[in-house]
Amino acid sequence: MGFFERRREKKAEAAHAAALSAWQAADDSLRRFLSDLAAGPSVDVPGFLFKKGEAATIDYQGAVLVEPRRQQGHYTGGYSGFSFKVTTGVRYHVGGTRGTYQPGPEVATVIDQGDVTMTNQRVVFRGPKQTREWAFTKLVGWHHDDPHPITYLQVSNRQKTSGFGYSAEHAPLVRFRFAWAMALYSEQVDHLRQSLETELQEHQASRPQPLGLPPPPPPPA
After folding, report:
1. Which residues contact 192 (CB under 8 A, 6 or more apart)?
2. Is residue 138 exposed (0-12), middle (13-18) or buried (19+ Cβ within 10 Å)?
3. Do the domain assignments include residue 11?
């Protein structure tokens, strides 16, 4: 085997090892999520005042509170006018306008850092400067801001959308626990479990094959 063949082989082995590692991590996560569902929500949150019938799916430490903040605006279409000399040491300024003020864009801004607790009734951020509660009874919509590790929630009692951020490493866990909290609220835990089981089955079929072997046949319809 020549130099270039060995080099290609090493690259293929490294790529296969990386793909297998990523596949295994996803497989472990799916199995852990199913195990969590089977055990039920039992997260202890010291200092958190639970409401009647409330149970937590996660207490995530190191979260950030994200809210839109208006950036500095600017004037457009204005002109500075002109001046001319009247006499020695005296100048006269004519006209000039600042134009039309254009407000700056709203940008997602981190305004505090603290803990996020998710329950079957709400999501709560608790920080040293700010506290936010997103009650599921007032929830209008939500979305995960891929590829950024931020979840935004819209509630009817606040005009502006706000949310919470977390580390990219913990994104799958945080988003699963959020889905679990929502499933508990809407009494759709069985549906969530079935979805995870289906995803796990499909994931099994995507396991990277050893080098040199043909891909496995597709699963029966």
Report:
1. 37, 179, 180, 183
2. middle
3. no
Q: Encode burial over 198-212: b for 16+ CB neighbours within 10 A, e otherwise.
A: eebeeeeeeebeeee
CA–CA separation, 106 and 28 (whole Å): 39
Range among 72-76, 95-99, 196-200, 213-217 rated most confident: 196-200
The set of residues, in sequence order, having a beta carbon less than 8 Å from that of 173 and lying 6+ positions away, is 29, 58
Residue 221 lies in a domain: no
> 13 pLDDT band (50/70/90 cuts)?
confident
- pTM of the prediction? 0.76
Domain count, the chain: 1
Residue ranges making up the domain that contains 164: 19-70+106-205
**Contact assessment for residue 30 and residue 195, using Cβ atoms and an 8 Å cutoff:** no
Listed residue (75, 3, 16, 43) closest to 215, CA to CA = 16
Q: Do residues 152 and 143 make contact, with C-beta atoms less than 8 angstroms apart? A: yes
Angstrom distance (rounded) from CA 112 to CA 55: 25
CATH code assigned at 156 = 2.30.29.30
**92 within a domain of the structure (yes/no):** no
Q: Where are the alpha helices (DSSP H) in 153-188?
A: 171-186
Give CA torsion, residues 44, 114, 47, 43, to 10 deg.
-10
Query: How many helices (H) and strands (E) in the chain?
Result: 3, 11
